[in-house]
Amino acid sequence: MKNIFLLMLFISLKVSAQDQLSVMPDCEDLSLTLESNSRNTFSFINNDDYNSKLKDSIAKPVKALLKEDKMLYDEFQNLFPDHISTHCIRGKQYGRGETEEISYCSNKQKIILIGKEQNFYIFKLDAFEIDSYILFNTLDKTIYFTENYPMIYDHGKIVFDIGYAYGGSNMINYYKFYDREKTEYFELMMPLRYTIKDFNVIRYPAIHLIAEIEKLSPSEKSSVRNKGCRKLLMIN
Predict the structure, then answer these.
(1) Does residue 45 contact residue 234 with C-beta atoms inside 8 Å?
(2) Fewer CB within a 10 Å sphere, N or C end of the chain?
(3) Res 225: pLDDT
(4) What is the pLDDT of residue 142?
(5) Cα(46)–Cα(212) distance, rounded to whole angstroms?
(6) What gap in Å lies between CA 35 and CA 29, rounded to an integer?
(7) CB 114 within 8 A of CB 125
(8) Are the C-beta atoms of residues 174 and 161 closer than 8 Å to each other?
(9) 3-state class of 65 per DSSP?
(10) Contact 236, 158 (CB under 8 A)
């Protein structure tokens, strides 16, 4: 029986390893929380399928230096004034399928512009113990937040946010941009102690993601850590 879960419009659910998956030792508490406003195929695959998919993986983007680009900042302010500055954020924000207006300033937050990829200006945000990133999409003039360095693919049509989530969990999140009127999102949250050991973006037949998930053991001995839960995940 293949473990495939089709996510419909604006749903939120939990997938229990004990009920839905072939459970491995120490894997009984794997419960993935999924939320999306689009159709996605989510499945667990075996080692052979995983290694076969790796042949079509795309190189991961190079992370920009976490250093302010002052010339790019001046360019942004000339083109899009009064949107994002060192202490202020104003404009349209997209989150969980909805767009809303935001406007706030705080001296406790510092925002620097570190780069530009495709149609996105990339900002680094440090505020209130939060270490995250801000994307400004020049096509729809909308602000998007990511908790990890954004990985932009397919000429700016998809953005992945993979890794640490605020609170200590690991996450897989992405935005898909079809036109100025439609944006899709997908979010997968993992329980504490579960981590994304590795992931790859695959181009064939269309862009999708494969990831290796494992459970961290409290033991510092590698022989014990390697006997924990391990799952291979694919998201289309």
Answers:
(1) yes
(2) N
(3) 53
(4) 95
(5) 11
(6) 19
(7) no
(8) yes
(9) coil
(10) no
User: Can you read off the two tokens belonging to residue 18?
Assistant: 């004990």
Distance CA 1, CA 15 (A): 16
Contact 19, 29 (CB under 8 A): no
Q: Please list, residue by residue across 51-86, b when 16 or more beta carbons sit within 10 angstroms of its beta carbon and e when fewer do.
A: eebeeeeeeeeeebeeebbeeebeebeeeeeebbbe
Helix (H/G/I), strand (E/B), else coil: 50: helix
Q: Given its phi and psi angles, is residue 145 left (phi above 0), alpha (psi -120 to 50 degrees) or beta?
A: beta
Tokens of 8: 């419909």
49 burial level (CB within 10 Å; 0-12, 13-18, 19+): middle
Cα separation, 203 vs 36, whole angstroms: 21
Q: How far apart are the first and last CA of the chain?
A: 19
Residue 213 has pLDDT above 50, yes or no: yes
Judged by DSSP in three states, 91 sits in strand
Decide: helix, strand or coil at residue 78.
helix
Residue 155 sits at φ, ψ, to 5 deg, of 55, 40
Rounded CA separation 38/8 (Å): 6
C-alpha 231/C-alpha 30 separation (Å) is 10
pTM above 0.90, yes or no: no
Q: Can you tell me whether residue 61 is helix, strand or coil?
A: coil
pLDDT digits (tens, 9 = 90+) for 34-77: 898 888 888 899 999 999 999 999 998 888 888 999 999 999 99
CA distances from 95 to 35, 59, 100, 174, 221 (A): 12, 27, 8, 11, 41
